Amino acid sequence: MTSLWSYWRQGGMRKQRFDMAGGISSYATELTKRSPTAPLTAEGADTGTLRVDLSWRMRPNNDFANRSSGIAQVLRRPLDLFKPAEIQGHSQGVATIDLDLACLYELNDGSRGVVQSLGGLLGDFNDPPYIHLSGDDRFGGTASGESLYVNLDHADEFKRLLVFVYIYSGVPAFDRADVVVTLVSADGKNVEVGLDDPVPGARSCAVALIEHKKGQLVARREVKYVYGFQSEIDRLYGWGMSWGRGTKPMRA
Protein backbone atom coordinates (compact mmCIF):
# COMPACT_ATOMS: atom_id res chain seq x y z
CA MET A 1 0.00 0.00 0.00
CA THR A 2 1.33 3.41 -0.95
CA SER A 3 2.11 5.71 1.96
CA LEU A 4 -1.00 7.68 2.97
CA TRP A 5 1.14 10.72 3.76
CA SER A 6 2.78 10.55 0.33
CA TYR A 7 -0.67 10.23 -1.22
CA TRP A 8 -1.88 13.41 0.48
CA ARG A 9 1.34 15.29 -0.23
CA GLN A 10 0.85 14.50 -3.94
CA GLY A 11 -2.61 16.08 -3.91
CA GLY A 12 -4.57 12.85 -3.75
CA MET A 13 -3.04 11.20 -6.81
CA ARG A 14 -1.71 7.74 -5.97
CA LYS A 15 1.74 7.45 -7.49
CA GLN A 16 4.45 4.99 -6.56
CA ARG A 17 7.70 6.68 -5.59
CA PHE A 18 11.03 5.02 -6.33
CA ASP A 19 14.31 5.19 -4.51
CA MET A 20 17.70 5.67 -6.19
CA ALA A 21 18.01 1.92 -6.85
CA GLY A 22 14.67 1.84 -8.62
CA GLY A 23 12.71 0.11 -5.86
CA ILE A 24 9.42 1.31 -4.40
CA SER A 25 10.15 3.19 -1.19
CA SER A 26 6.83 4.56 0.05
CA TYR A 27 4.74 1.56 1.15
CA ALA A 28 2.95 1.40 4.48
CA THR A 29 0.22 -0.46 6.32
CA GLU A 30 -2.79 1.78 6.88
CA LEU A 31 -5.03 1.15 9.89
CA THR A 32 -8.69 1.52 8.89
CA LYS A 33 -12.10 0.81 10.41
CA ARG A 34 -12.14 -2.55 8.59
CA SER A 35 -8.52 -3.38 9.43
CA PRO A 36 -7.85 -1.56 12.71
CA THR A 37 -4.84 -3.43 14.16
CA ALA A 38 -1.23 -4.18 13.28
CA PRO A 39 1.70 -5.68 15.22
CA LEU A 40 4.57 -3.36 16.05
CA THR A 41 6.96 -5.98 17.38
CA ALA A 42 7.80 -9.42 16.08
CA GLU A 43 10.72 -11.82 16.07
CA GLY A 44 13.78 -9.74 15.21
CA ALA A 45 11.93 -6.46 15.86
CA ASP A 46 11.12 -6.70 19.57
CA THR A 47 13.98 -4.45 20.67
CA GLY A 48 15.33 -1.13 19.46
CA THR A 49 13.16 1.93 18.87
CA LEU A 50 9.57 2.53 17.84
CA ARG A 51 9.25 6.00 16.30
CA VAL A 52 5.94 7.84 16.07
CA ASP A 53 5.75 10.76 13.61
CA LEU A 54 3.07 13.41 13.20
CA SER A 55 2.51 15.08 9.81
CA TRP A 56 -0.21 17.28 8.43
CA ARG A 57 -1.12 19.39 5.43
CA MET A 58 -3.60 22.27 5.57
CA ARG A 59 -6.46 22.32 3.11
CA PRO A 60 -7.61 25.63 1.64
CA ASN A 61 -11.05 27.04 2.43
CA ASN A 62 -11.80 27.50 -1.25
CA ASP A 63 -9.83 25.79 -4.01
CA PHE A 64 -10.45 28.50 -6.63
CA ALA A 65 -9.71 31.33 -4.21
CA ASN A 66 -6.57 29.57 -3.02
CA ARG A 67 -5.28 29.06 -6.57
CA SER A 68 -5.94 32.72 -7.39
CA SER A 69 -4.17 33.94 -4.26
CA GLY A 70 -1.32 31.51 -4.96
CA ILE A 71 -0.81 32.90 -8.47
CA ALA A 72 -0.83 36.44 -7.11
CA GLN A 73 1.72 35.43 -4.45
CA VAL A 74 4.06 33.96 -7.08
CA LEU A 75 3.82 37.11 -9.20
CA ARG A 76 4.69 39.26 -6.20
CA ARG A 77 7.36 36.96 -4.73
CA PRO A 78 8.61 34.40 -7.30
CA LEU A 79 11.30 33.07 -4.95
CA ASP A 80 8.52 31.65 -2.75
CA LEU A 81 8.26 28.81 -5.28
CA PHE A 82 11.41 27.35 -3.73
CA LYS A 83 9.96 27.25 -0.20
CA PRO A 84 8.56 23.99 1.24
CA ALA A 85 4.88 23.47 0.45
CA GLU A 86 3.83 23.73 4.10
CA ILE A 87 5.46 27.15 4.50
CA GLN A 88 3.96 28.33 1.22
CA GLY A 89 0.55 27.41 2.55
CA HIS A 90 1.14 29.41 5.71
CA SER A 91 1.93 32.50 3.62
CA GLN A 92 -1.12 32.26 1.34
CA GLY A 93 -3.89 32.91 3.84
CA VAL A 94 -4.63 29.25 4.54
CA ALA A 95 -6.00 28.79 8.06
CA THR A 96 -3.31 27.25 10.25
CA ILE A 97 -3.37 25.15 13.38
CA ASP A 98 -0.67 24.02 15.78
CA LEU A 99 -0.98 20.25 16.13
CA ASP A 100 0.94 18.49 18.86
CA LEU A 101 1.83 14.84 19.36
CA ALA A 102 1.58 13.23 22.80
CA CYS A 103 1.35 9.89 24.57
CA LEU A 104 -0.41 8.72 27.71
CA TYR A 105 1.41 5.78 29.28
CA GLU A 106 0.72 3.16 31.93
CA LEU A 107 3.53 0.88 33.06
CA ASN A 108 3.15 -2.54 34.62
CA ASP A 109 4.32 -1.16 37.99
CA GLY A 110 1.19 1.04 38.05
CA SER A 111 2.86 4.34 37.22
CA ARG A 112 0.96 6.56 34.80
CA GLY A 113 1.71 9.82 33.07
CA VAL A 114 1.90 11.76 29.84
CA VAL A 115 4.69 12.70 27.44
CA GLN A 116 3.98 16.01 25.70
CA SER A 117 5.53 19.37 24.89
CA LEU A 118 2.94 21.16 27.01
CA GLY A 119 4.52 21.71 30.41
CA GLY A 120 7.88 20.45 29.13
CA LEU A 121 6.96 16.82 29.89
CA LEU A 122 9.28 15.36 27.27
CA GLY A 123 9.83 12.00 29.00
CA ASP A 124 13.01 9.92 29.04
CA PHE A 125 14.22 7.25 26.63
CA ASN A 126 16.58 5.33 28.93
CA ASP A 127 14.63 5.61 32.19
CA PRO A 128 10.91 5.38 32.96
CA PRO A 129 8.65 5.98 31.10
CA TYR A 130 11.08 4.91 28.31
CA ILE A 131 9.38 7.35 25.93
CA HIS A 132 10.87 10.62 24.68
CA LEU A 133 9.33 13.44 22.65
CA SER A 134 11.71 15.29 20.36
CA GLY A 135 10.91 18.58 18.66
CA ASP A 136 7.84 20.79 18.32
CA ASP A 137 6.84 21.05 14.68
CA ARG A 138 4.70 24.12 13.96
CA PHE A 139 4.29 23.42 10.22
CA GLY A 140 3.46 19.71 9.93
CA GLY A 141 6.46 18.33 8.02
CA THR A 142 8.34 15.44 9.62
CA ALA A 143 11.66 16.97 8.54
CA SER A 144 11.46 19.40 11.45
CA GLY A 145 11.47 16.52 13.86
CA GLU A 146 8.31 16.19 16.01
CA SER A 147 8.48 12.53 16.94
CA LEU A 148 7.94 10.21 19.87
CA TYR A 149 10.64 7.59 20.51
CA VAL A 150 9.64 4.46 22.43
CA ASN A 151 12.40 2.25 23.86
CA LEU A 152 11.42 -1.29 22.88
CA ASP A 153 14.20 -2.74 25.01
CA HIS A 154 11.72 -2.12 27.84
CA ALA A 155 8.61 -3.23 25.95
CA ASP A 156 7.71 -5.71 28.70
CA GLU A 157 7.30 -2.80 31.12
CA PHE A 158 4.53 -1.16 29.10
CA LYS A 159 0.93 -1.99 30.02
CA ARG A 160 -0.64 0.41 27.53
CA LEU A 161 0.27 3.49 25.52
CA LEU A 162 -2.21 5.90 23.97
CA VAL A 163 -0.92 8.12 21.18
CA PHE A 164 -3.01 11.25 20.74
CA VAL A 165 -2.92 14.60 18.97
CA TYR A 166 -4.20 17.92 20.28
CA ILE A 167 -4.52 21.47 18.97
CA TYR A 168 -2.64 23.67 21.41
CA SER A 169 -3.33 26.96 19.66
CA GLY A 170 -5.14 28.25 16.62
CA VAL A 171 -8.53 27.29 15.24
CA PRO A 172 -9.85 23.91 16.50
CA ALA A 173 -10.15 22.61 12.98
CA PHE A 174 -9.12 19.02 12.40
CA ASP A 175 -11.52 19.19 9.45
CA ARG A 176 -9.25 21.74 7.76
CA ALA A 177 -6.19 19.48 7.59
CA ASP A 178 -5.05 16.10 6.30
CA VAL A 179 -3.35 14.55 9.32
CA VAL A 180 -1.32 11.32 9.48
CA VAL A 181 0.37 9.63 12.42
CA THR A 182 3.02 7.10 11.35
CA LEU A 183 4.40 4.39 13.62
CA VAL A 184 7.78 3.16 12.39
CA SER A 185 8.77 -0.21 13.88
CA ALA A 186 12.31 -1.22 14.72
CA ASP A 187 12.59 -3.19 11.48
CA GLY A 188 11.50 -0.19 9.40
CA LYS A 189 7.86 -1.07 8.74
CA ASN A 190 5.44 1.87 8.61
CA VAL A 191 1.98 1.73 10.15
CA GLU A 192 -0.12 4.80 9.31
CA VAL A 193 -3.27 6.18 10.90
CA GLY A 194 -5.09 8.90 9.01
CA LEU A 195 -7.26 11.20 11.12
CA ASP A 196 -10.31 10.93 8.90
CA ASP A 197 -13.97 11.78 9.67
CA PRO A 198 -12.93 14.83 11.73
CA VAL A 199 -15.42 16.42 14.13
CA PRO A 200 -15.79 20.20 13.72
CA GLY A 201 -14.64 22.04 16.83
CA ALA A 202 -12.74 19.11 18.34
CA ARG A 203 -9.42 19.99 19.98
CA SER A 204 -8.02 16.51 20.63
CA CYS A 205 -8.01 13.10 18.97
CA ALA A 206 -7.06 9.71 20.42
CA VAL A 207 -5.15 8.12 17.54
CA ALA A 208 -3.82 4.68 18.48
CA LEU A 209 -3.81 2.42 21.53
CA ILE A 210 -0.75 0.18 21.92
CA GLU A 211 -1.03 -2.93 24.11
CA HIS A 212 0.40 -6.44 24.44
CA LYS A 213 -1.42 -9.14 22.49
CA LYS A 214 -0.08 -12.71 22.35
CA GLY A 215 3.46 -11.66 23.14
CA GLN A 216 3.55 -8.71 20.73
CA LEU A 217 2.95 -4.99 20.99
CA VAL A 218 -0.07 -4.29 18.81
CA ALA A 219 -1.39 -0.91 17.65
CA ARG A 220 -5.15 -0.44 17.38
CA ARG A 221 -6.71 2.42 15.47
CA GLU A 222 -8.86 4.67 17.65
CA VAL A 223 -9.41 8.05 15.90
CA LYS A 224 -11.81 9.32 18.56
CA TYR A 225 -12.28 13.09 18.76
CA VAL A 226 -13.08 15.11 21.88
CA TYR A 227 -13.84 18.80 22.33
CA GLY A 228 -11.49 19.23 25.29
CA PHE A 229 -7.86 18.49 25.96
CA GLN A 230 -5.85 15.84 27.79
CA SER A 231 -8.23 15.50 30.72
CA GLU A 232 -11.07 14.53 28.38
CA ILE A 233 -8.87 11.97 26.62
CA ASP A 234 -8.00 10.65 30.10
CA ARG A 235 -11.67 10.29 31.05
CA LEU A 236 -12.47 8.55 27.78
CA TYR A 237 -9.85 5.85 28.45
CA GLY A 238 -9.93 5.77 32.25
CA TRP A 239 -6.35 6.83 33.00
CA GLY A 240 -7.44 8.45 36.29
CA MET A 241 -4.91 11.29 36.43
CA SER A 242 -5.22 14.82 37.82
CA TRP A 243 -4.78 17.68 35.33
CA GLY A 244 -3.93 21.36 35.55
CA ARG A 245 -3.18 24.17 33.12
CA GLY A 246 0.20 24.10 31.36
CA THR A 247 2.20 26.03 28.79
CA LYS A 248 4.78 25.18 26.18
CA PRO A 249 8.45 26.00 26.84
CA MET A 250 9.60 29.11 24.99
CA ARG A 251 11.49 28.39 21.79
CA ALA A 252 15.05 29.66 21.52
Would you write up a description of this structure?
The chain has 252 residues and is mainly β. The chain folds into 2 domains: 29-59 and 96-237, sav2460 like domains (Lipoxygenase-1), CATH 2.60.60.30; 62-93, no CATH class. It is built from 4 helices and 13 strands. Strands 1-11-10-3-8-7-6 form a 7-stranded mixed β-sheet. It has a 6-stranded antiparallel β-sheet with strand order 2-13-12-9-4-5. β6 and β7 form a beta hairpin. The radius of gyration is 19 Å and the shape is globular. The model is unreliable at 12-25, 62-70 and 83-94 (pLDDT under 50). InterPro entries: TerD (IPR003325). It comes from Streptomyces radicis.
Short description:
The protein has helices at 4-9, 63-76, 85-90, 230-237; strands spanning 29-30, 37-39, 49-58, 97-107, 112-115, 123-124, 131-134, 147-151, 158-170, 177-184, 190-194, 204-213, 216-226. With 252 residues, it is mainly beta.
